[in-house]
Amino acid sequence: MGFKTELENFTLSKILYDVPMKKHTSFGVGGKAKYFTKVDSLCALNSLIQTAKRYKVKYKVIGNGSNLLVSDMGFNGLVICTKGLDDVYFKREQVRAMAGVKIEKLLSFCLKNRLSGIESLAGIPATVGGAVVMNASAFGRSISDHIAEVETLKDGKIKKYYKNECKFEYRKSRFYHSKETIVSATFNFREEDPQRIISAINSYREHRNNFHPQGRSCGSVFKNPKPERAGELIDRAGLKGLRFGGARVSLKHGNFIVTDKNASATDVYHLILHVKEKVEQLFGVQLFEEVEYVGEF
Fold it and tell me: Residue 141 catalytic?
């Protein structure tokens, strides 16, 4: 029995073929995934990963696709979307969220239960899994500030990591480019007056609306090369508004690349390379991407 035959007989989730990845990424660009599915159980997730490994087929686990740039040539393998793993609930006095829970849903759960801690992430279109991998942060606060433990799938088994084992750094964790797949995160939050939580959420959202561009983007393209800020370097380099095909550097914020309906992944990729080259040429500072490349460029 071959890989495709096993997928055709798979009953735990629906398998789709030749799915345009531009529908599953915030950039809205990219070619087709040869195989695509959205799982809603750990059993389905584990079974698909093990099947792909057995047949030596490439696979990629994604959440909301908010930090991905998929090649125009697509992905010659299996894309597994975890957005169906979206339960969030109390685990004793802690909060456990599955990998596919959107940050906005986690915020709503916290507000309903008078819990504070991640208001600064309001407006980030990520899932818990992706946010933990990248140690999502904003306004000087990180999701790892409130992590108690993280569970992953590793070699077909659930593995637990306590916070001090996760190796959280700026925009990085031990799960970054790891062969493990995050399945859940458990958080410690503090009790707070709901009106204060709402006020904080509204304040952070207002700031994003005022300083971040609307439209299709992955958010910040580059990590900040401390003590500098990527957006300021790009601005000083005179690169705001620079366009390559259907992609351009935002006039509102230099660290954002926005795409129009005719953009391609190649447009975004070449614009990223040009910005990196220009900033290093002018300031001697090397920029490193937050965006993850999927497929061949």
Answer: no
